[in-house]
Amino acid sequence: MTSGSGERARSFGVAAGRYGDYRPSYPDALPDALEELSGVALAGARVADVGAGTGIATGLLHARGARVVGVEPGAAMAAEFRRRHPRVPLVRGEGDRLPFAPGSLDLLTYAQSWHWTDPARSGPEALRVLRPGGALAVWSNDPDVGVEWIAGQQARIEEGFGPGWYVNEHPRSQNGLEFTTRLLRWSRRITIDAHLAKLATHSLFLIGRPGTDEFLDGERERLRALFPEGTVHEHYLVDLRVARVAAQPKRPWT
Prior knowledge:
Layout (H helix, E strand, L loop, with lengths): L2 H8 L5 H7 L6 H10 L7 E5 L5 H8 L3 E5 L3 H10 L5 E2 L13 E7 L7 H11 E14 L4 H14 L17 E13 H8 L3 H4 L5 H15 L4 E14 L10
Parallel strand pairs: 1-2, 1-4, 2-3, 4-5
Antiparallel strand pairs: 5-7, 6-7
């Protein structure tokens, strides 16, 4: 992770409450797809959700009966997590140094957070803490640029602030982890102001880049012209990637 991405990773603390209020959840189909690809039944499973933030994904796993622990490095986000999910355990930590014993987890999840790790370290850490037959799952809520108005907004952001504003690198095969991918489309209808408040919780808008306030003001006027009823239909594409750990470790040649 570069120093610039480190600044962006630390920026969420100033907007922890707004993050929890406006960031989207995930589709109902996600837990079923997660169980299918991982081979792990969520009910009763030992799960750690890394980069838990305010607990959006952690709460979803808990609701399905998982014995889930949130892992969050940021103090403000951790405090918001505890406020929203007082019954769910939380530990302070990060993906490059997981606070778990070897082979102690059935499932390790990263929702919108894998890109804040150093894969050269987080990959081996995943293998260390997962039991044989366990699984690593990484997913993201990506704006569906197949929808015209969303594609237009994405293009304007890149024109104003450069490519890569939406920090979300997906995991690659490494350290014996081979990922299977499932794409899930879903949508939600929210007000224009809520949509812009959600946009403002992304790291680009939190680190004080010049012109971001003016951009959001301009988007408000554009969206009001496009959607005079005052609501937008946000469309997302969940990119779910799951890698299973071998049920039996390979024996070295003797």
